[in-house]
Design a protein that fits this description.
The protein has 322 residues and is of the alpha/beta class. It has one domain: Rossmann fold (3-Layer(aba) Sandwich), CATH 3.40.50.1820. Helices cover 34% and strands 25% of the residues. It contains eight helices and 13 strands. Strands 1, 2, 3, 4, 5, 6, 7, 8, 9, 10 and 11 form an eleven-stranded mixed sheet that branches. It has a two-stranded parallel ribbon with strand order 12-13. Strand 10 and strand 11 form a beta hairpin.
Length: 322
Amino acid sequence: MKHASWATLLNRNAALLRQAAKPLRERHRPPASSASAGSWLMGLVMAADGPRRYYLFRPAGVRFGERLPLLVMLHGCHQDAKSFADSTRMNSVAVRERFLVLYPEQPRVCNAQGCWNWFDTQSGRAFNEAAWLMKAVDQVCVLYAADRERIAVAGLSAGASMAALLATRYPQRFKALVMHSGVPPGAASSPASALGAMRGRREPLAPGDVAGHWPPLMVIHGEADGVVSARNAGAAAQMWSEAAGASASEPQQQRRGQRYPMTVTQFKRARQVVATLVEVGGLGHAWSGGAARQHFSDANGPDASRMIWRFAARQFDTPTRG
């Protein structure tokens, strides 16, 4: 009887361990779009306070000596690399258009909700995160032969705000920036000011030393966003416009099939497009055109992933495949 009790206890503990390990196994399992079309690779870089993990999607059939463009994708709060890849389906675009996708991952020990600490510039925490993200970019350029002259960065929500911080802090490293549902740089400097910035109640302060030399910006934001005010989208586009001495073109109404309508406004200096503002009617705090049944994803919106690649490819002067 005693032997049976021990056996039961051991079986129960083994079942608990398997259950506890399941989320970890799920995180490391390749996204559905990566299963047969490319490689889902994990990497580590050292930050000031420990190792940081990233994942890289590399499409199949990369030839020796071939250098592919690199798109850095920064997830939002309550997401990780895999869930962001699943939601955005950016890997499918990468297979079609042949580029690398880098998904850095924010450890929960750095933020309990998995948010990037874009707002914490006063303490220097935001800049430390930006520094390790750049280490990840550099490592991918060395290990996987990413083209250093064709790098773009995009993000959702907190990831969009961190992407903007990267692009303004290291403007020479990026050819394009896309903010999806984020807050422009300089709108917050501490956790206490972040909430007001998200609600659109704080004016962003642009760093003047590099203003006008930032990479071209695309902003995508839902007009029904109840988490990050859509006022932030206009503020970001206006910041880029003023820094470059650009002016707004006439807004264009667009709609593709049954998807949500969008209003597209370009800010130009001469013939150069400095910023593009995409306001999506009916879209909340979610990736526009993302996979159905995924958190922070709305399949009814225009396809943000395709828009992002088209925008980046124009800055790379790279032809797209339709």
